[in-house]
Amino acid sequence: MLATFRGNPPLRRLLIVWAQSCVGTGAGYVALLLLTVGRLHTGWWIAAVLLADYLPAIAFGAWFGGLADRYSKRRLLIVANLVQAAAYGGLALSHTAAPIVLLALLAGTGGAIERPAVRAALPVIAGEGSQVAAAVYDTARWGGMTAGPLVAAGLVAVGSVALPLALNGASFVIAAALIATVSIPSATQDETREPTGSGVRAGLAVALSLPAIAIVVACSAGTFIAGGLLNVCEPLFARRVLLGSPSDYALLVASYCAGMVLASALVAHLGSRPPRALIGRFVAAVALTAAGMGASALAGSVGLAAITFAATGVGNALLLVSGTQLILTTVPVEVQGRLFGAKDTLEGACFLIGLAAAGGLVTAEGVRTSLATAAAICAFCGLAGAVALRGRAARMAQPADAQLAGAD
């Protein structure tokens, strides 16, 4: 793993900027919710702010990914970081509903531009080390979401909620300056193939025509419905079912995040794998996620639940990073941005479906049944994926260019 970064300064700088961005996003998420609670008070405004943060990726993810395929990824990343800097800087000064919601929408827009651009930049910078880079990308993502809330809590304790928001805005300015020093080559079209076109539909048609890619994207999105259910169930499970304290709830969240960080770091350490192995890991990871959620539904103590939540985090990280690695390894570079953007859109929409369904399901059937339902959704995705992927793994062993040539 170290060899991938030792001789590649642009890749090191890109992932350092991404890691800083993830810590800032984690801190900003907590600070934004604290700001909303403190200024606007009601749950409806919290829901509105969360929706504003998610909406850009859901509505425009594929289009933002198309920008990453067509234009300079470095410039897009600079713009994305400056947009987030302006949003969080403005939030530090905001006191009323309209600017808070609008600036949350602006922050979400910057993040929605940044994510597909970073992932699409990895193969052109990392080359053969793109699988390792993808695992480090996810490790930084989940590590930031673990460390960021702790940073925000510390800053709020010594100051006010405006402090982490302002410092987060400043961190994005620094990130934009660092990205300006990173050389990101443009993806080039293979001259032996017909041009893919610059439109979103044309790029997605190329990407989804490859064996297994559409199935992996669909299965991954399905697990996000279960993730939405889990997010709603977490605090209720800790406090009302297990009769735990707020610290016990924090322990469950920390266990889940720790599982994700450890799994992503382990994948980075193991290095690159052929597409067939990535497909096998993906299916096994969906099964582990289902098993973790199912075991959580049966857990009778906080200690046991912490173990099951950690297992769920491991499974979720493995399925996400394996899917990303498969895309980087098999999908032509010039259409990866569009695929990553569309994947963000689909996963975000499925997550909101899970969130929306959770309220009624928890009220009608209870928390344990809701967790069991989430496990059943993951199990169905894993079983359907395993059946649909049978026979496709061998075809994925071919290089992406060869696959497309055969499909023409």
Task: Describe the structure in your own words.
The protein has 408 residues and is mainly α. It folds into 2 domains: 1-185, MFS general substrate transporter like domains (Growth Hormone, Chain: A, Up-down Bundle); 199-408, MFS general substrate transporter like domains (Growth Hormone, Chain: A, Up-down Bundle), CATH 1.20.1250.20. It has 16 helices and no strands. The longest helix has 32 residues, at 9-40. 55% of the residues are buried. Residues 189-195 and 397-408 have low confidence and may be disordered.
Itemize the secondary structure elements and their pairings.
Elements: H1 2-6, H2 9-40, H3 43-70, H4 73-91, H5 97-126, H6 130-158, H7 162-179, H8 200-208, H9 213-241, H10 246-270, H11 275-298, H12 302-330, H13 336-365, H14 367-389, H15 393-396, H16 400-407
Helix pairs in contact: 2-3, 2-5, 2-6, 2-7, 3-5, 3-13, 4-5, 4-7, 5-6, 5-13, 6-10, 6-12, 8-13, 9-10, 9-11, 9-12, 9-13, 9-14, 10-12, 11-12, 11-14, 13-14
